[in-house]
Amino acid sequence: MTVDRSFVAQNRTERVRLETLVTRLDDAGLARSMPEGWTIAAVLAHVAFWDQRLLVLLEHGERTASAALPETIREADVDWINDAAKPLMLALPPRAAARLAARLKFSGSLAARPAPPGW
Q1: 29 or 71: whose pLDDT is higher?
Q2: Does the N terminus or the C terminus of the chain have fewer Cβ atoms within 10 A?
């Protein structure tokens, strides 16, 4: 069975777009307000949080050699998790939030990792 990995090229394109944005914006730009009380930097931290969650799940699958998919997050939980994390993300210095998102996205660690067997 052939696995469709076309997402890798698309992820690479999106990483370049994100890198361009992070490089172009100064701290004031990263601190710019967005809807619902977010800032650009906090949104980048938000993306980093969910990427880190996936990375931890993949590492757990590798360590345990588990073929079982981890329990997925319930849709009803997403909003309260985001609401709980939002003050922490807003408290990060804008450049630190951008670096965090960049480190996770630009490392390619998510795109390059094979999923554990059975995922």
Answers
A1: 29
A2: N
